[in-house]
Amino acid sequence: MPPPGAFSAIDLTPNELELARQRRLAAGGYLDLTSSNPTLQGLHFPAEILREAAEDYWANRRYTPDPRGDAAARAAVIGYYAGRTPPLPLTPDDLFLTASTSEAYSLLFALLADPGDNLLAPNVTYPLFDYLAALRGLELRAYTLREEAGWAIDEHSLAAVADARTRAVLIVSPHNPTGAVLRAPLPALSQLGLPLICDEVFAPFAYGVPHVPPVAALHPDLPVFTLNGISKLFALPDMKLGWVALNHAARGFGPRLELLNDTFLGANGLSQWLLPALFARGMPFVAEMVGRVRANLDLALARLDGHPRLRARLPDGGYYLFPAVQGWQDEEALALHLLDHGLLVHPGYFYGDLPGAHLMLSALTEPASFAAGIERLAAVI
Ligand SMILES: Cc1ncc(COP(=O)(O)O)c(C=O)c1O
Predict the structure, then answer these.
(1) CB of 106 sitting under 6 A from ligand 1
(2) Of 47, 63, 201, 211, which one's alpha carbon is 20 to 30 angstroms from that of 10?
(3) What pTM, to 2 d.p., does this model score?
(4) Which residues partner with 360 through β-bridges?
(5) What is the distance in A from the centroid of ligand 1 to the CA of 67?
(6) Is 7 helix (H, G, I), strand (E, B) or coil?
(7) Max CA-CA distance within the chain?
(8) CATH number belonging to domain 48-281
């Protein structure tokens, strides 16, 4: 029996790949194609915008917390959704500012489910869900993404894994790490009738689609909780601000979500104050970031085109390439082999359980390193 307490059954000793990474680092380093951290890839939100907007904060600082978040900050978020395609109409009462998207998930898990209940999450996926679900004693049940259909959600698998204790469906669009975007309402979601928790942190990064439609606008028939924040949108993960937007059908959950958010009041005062300026003045920077990722994706796809073992395609959106690798079954051995040649990638199993071998490559990477990394990948595999 593991000792009591969260995560006590998890083996926290470093795995083979991490040990090899540490050795390689000590021996001179490697090309890193795994980074999701814009601040370490030369993408810095313009400091003068932050500095100028913060000036007024220091002069006017008062702690008068609102459990839904600062009114001016919420108004700025409402303006952002009004400009999406299609627009998502929101009122100030539909928004809850949080410390991060991760915290927002955790509040929603508590809002919607009790220990022993389950949530449906995609296989493959952003790996944080396991830990967030474990903290609430929830089971995650995997629904399938169809690789051959551009990683579209397999509607049959949704119905197959849901039961009487399923409380919500998690959707990430654009999806991490496959990039798939949900473009149209899914009849299977409507039939299930469950609340949707939709993570849209990669919404500005649209490549294989003209735009990323808010899932809440596609599914007005369901309670939809839309999650986003400034970590990806404005490359400000250090400023710690996220939000939950409730569509019309989710409004009944508002009072309890307010109490949950009031329990922590996690949203940072300075970051809330800055948010209107981020939306008003930050969009040229966002466009620059989106352009960087696009240029990296184009470079990789051109280099890997016709490669005998790597199968990459332009993702609908997001930061990442998630190519299949032919001729390899053991992803860990593949990642170790690449590290031996000075290249760090994530093996597909970090994100779930798929047949065959896949790699995650981050196109957020600083362009010269990205180009060198892709060149090495193509040569070594
Ligand atoms: C899909 C997805 N959602 C959420 C987050 C985290 O966002 P936050 O920094 O707001 O917690 C990440 C970070 O990588 C992510 O990939």
Answers:
(1) no
(2) 201
(3) 0.97
(4) 346
(5) 22
(6) coil
(7) 62
(8) 3.40.640.10
